[in-house]
Amino acid sequence: MFLDVVMAGISVPPAPGEEVWATDRALSPGGIANAAVGAARLGASTALVTAIGDDEVGDLVSDMLGAEKRLSLAPSGRQRGMQTALSVALSTAEDRSFISHGQLDPIDLASEVDAVGHAATMFVALDLELPTWVRKRRAAGTTVFGGVGWDERHGWSDDVLTQLQHVDVFVLNEREALSYTRTSTVEHAISRLGEFVAMTVITRGPSGALAFDAGSGVLSESPGIRVRAVDPTGAGDEFVAALMRTASSDMAVADRLLFANLCASYTASGLGGAVSNPTLHGLESWLLGHRSEIAADTSAVSDLITAWIDDCGHADQALPSSPSQTQPTRKEK
Questions:
Q1: Overall pTM surpassing 0.85 (yes/no)
Q2: Which residues on neighbouring strands pair with residue 213, listed in sequence order?
Q3: What is the pLDDT of residues 73-115, one digit of tens each?
Q4: Is the dihedral of CA 152, 154, 159, 160 positive or negative?
Q5: DSSP state of 87
């Protein structure tokens, strides 16, 4: 769980002793909150299980997330004396640099997880060993989605892949897939990962996404969506949230990938992660304006969005806006 401070529109990061001015900024809950907010905005009843400190950063994060409809923070207790993780992102036209502070995995979340009722889906970050509550949830009927981050701690250890036996769907990006499998092509990587897990999904940014069903041997693909990316922060998390949201639908896998790509592209076209995640109404409007940029049939996705809007009514609610100069057309009523 992070508070992200995004500073964008700078030409180069400051050298020691220098000061530069950004043209845009955004404050947003980050880390695991990206996926949680993403799922809630897409109409899913969502619980966020994480550690939030009792400091001023934790106050701000809690206030912002507390305004989000369908997102419960009840399982996420405030931790006395803990400093909530903070990450400052400096974004140039070419790349981003980060300065972060906080403690990874600050507490054992087992008791907090036990407080959550049955969940149709859940997301967990893979490590060398998964907590026992992941297996318990899966045995109770929850579909487990797993992901990985940039693995500088474990050096792309094979021990992480052995944890896939407790996961139903493994989602990672192309660079992570090639690093873990020690392969040179995404096709070889996804086939290799199919030896460990039933469904593997590899995201490829503007090149789209692939999914491999190990049981049937079917490889599904969705094209990328080329939009002007303002800030990629949280786009991968939004992809996972959207994929989880469609888990109970009867959509073809390729259409599920397309829906997830649409949601991720929407997030990347705004500044900040969770604060730029789409609501259903926002996604519907955005899709209408970007059909010419999508090299795929979007009818199944449009029908699904319409059905979900009808189910959810008009309860869409966005996080409070942070001070930002992001695209005015993205502001939602």
A1: yes
A2: 199, 218
A3: 988 888 898 999 999 988 876 677 889 998 877 778 888 888 8
A4: negative
A5: E
